[in-house]
Automatic annotation (TrEMBL):
Key words, A-Z: Glycoprotein, Ion channel, Ion transport, Ligand-gated ion channel, Membrane, Receptor, Transmembrane, Transmembrane helix, Transport
InterPro entries: Glu/Gly-bd
Record Pfam families: Lig_chan-Glu_bd
Keyword Ion transport recorded: yes
Tagged with keyword Protease: no
Localization terms from the record: Membrane
Gene Ontology terms for molecular function: ligand-gated monoatomic ion channel activity
Protein name listed in UniProt: GRID1
GO CC aspect terms: membrane
Membrane topology label: Multi-pass membrane protein
Domain Ionotropic glutamate receptor L-glutamate and glycine-binding, residue spans: 280-341
Main location: membrane
Organism: Mytilus coruscus (Sea mussel)
Length: 345
């Protein structure tokens, strides 16, 4: 029997320990725990976890536990992933926006890995991340090639709400591998109930724990793999799978695109472009059928842009023939006003 227990209240650690003891007395063979660092540290000191194989899911950066197999974000791997992304995109300077959950050791490791790829980093620490609008002014000031945001899981719940199910799937897989190895190497098919108050551990549990220790030493996290997902069209659209990353193979993408919302072209759309005649940049001409045509330096550039980015265009002019100035009511006239009103590009 595999018991999955979720604990969210930090103040009930010892109540939780009592629950573990009750389940162990009911012949529970292993535990998958979703806990925080503080809870994991306290539980690790409890004798019961010397006798019951445990996979603990910790979504924060915290020190290693020695009695539990730990599924957690390993910053060494995730930092390598970030450095690989910067290298893949040919970024030379990045903005790192992070909060208190990112430890100093993890931060130092990321800076080291980025510097090895000749990437300079500007760091901004926040105590209350609330979304992209917080770092927009840093983009305007420093114009980074790319941005990395590292924040606490609960601030991103709206876009990573499925992570608990994914972690649980990985944890169950690890636990099943442990017990498969127990059956194969020790021929133990059922573990005896255990009492938290007893001093000795039943023999078949001792055999199972030996297998658990070997499995733990092989470090299941060495085989971790990250899925790379991206939004499409906007920051709020659903996630699309773009590829994966592993320590051995690096980045492997479904297509050549790393970000789903990267601009490719205008998909043959017709854009309205505001213009006024100004030699030698824009000429307004009339052909034999008395239709207005356009030429000049800016029109030549516009033609090349249309070819490169796959769009058509229509030249439109403001009725007041003005380039644009601010009116008393705060609106703009001329070509600037057309752009502000989304009449032209």
């Amino acid at each position: 029997m595999l018991e999955v227990v979720n604990v969210t209240n930090e103040n009930k650690i010892f109540d939780f320990k009592n629950k573990v003891c009750e389940l162990a007395a009911e012949s529970v063979d292993g535990f998958v725990l979703f806990v925080d660092c503080r809870t994991a540290t306290v539980l690790e000191k409890q004798k019961i976890f010397n006798s019951v194989p445990t996979v603990v899911v910790i979504r924060d950066f915290c020190r290693d536990q020695h009695r539990m197999i730990q599924l957690r974000p390993d910053c060494t791997y995730s930092n390598t992933l970030l450095a690989d992304i910067a290298a893949y995109k040919l970024w030379r300077n990045v903005l790192l926006y992070y909060d208190h959950t990112y430890s100093s050791l993890c931060l130092t490791d990321l800076l080291k890995q980025l510097s090895l790829n000749s990437v300079s980093t500007r760091m901004v620490r926040t105590n209350n991340y609330a979304g992209p609008l917080q770092y927009i002014h840093y983009i305007e000031r420093h114009a980074p090639d790319g941005i990395f945001v590292v924040t606490a899981t609960d601030t991103m719940e709206d876009i990573i709400s499925k992570d608990s199910a994914i972690y649980l799937s990985d944890a169950i897989k690890a636990m099943l591998e442990i017990f498969s190895e127990v059956v194969l190497t020790t021929n133990v098919t059922a573990l005896e109930p255990i009492d938290c108050r007893q001093k000795s551990t039943p023999r078949n549990r001792t055999l199972a724990l030996e297998v658990f220790k070997i499995f733990q030493q092989n470090n299941v996290m060495n085989y971790s793999e990250y899925q790379i997902c991206s939004t499409e069209n906007s920051l709020t659209d659903s996630w699309k799978y773009m590829g994966n990353w592993s320590k051995d193979d690096g980045i492997s993408l479904v297509t050549s695109r790393l970000f789903g919302n990267e601009f490719i072209d205008f998909n043959n759309a017709t854009l309205k472009v505001a213009a006024l005649p100004l030699d030698p940049f824009v000429f307004f001409n009339s052909d034999d059928n008395n239709r207005t045509t356009h030429s000049g330096f800016c029109i030549d550039i516009l033609d090349q842009l249309a070819l490169k980015f796959n769009f058509n265009y229509e030249i439109v002019s403001p009725s007041d023939n003005a380039y644009g100035s601010l009116e008393d009511d705060g609106t703009w006239n001329g070509m600037v006003g057309m752009v502000m009103r989304n009449v032209s590009k």
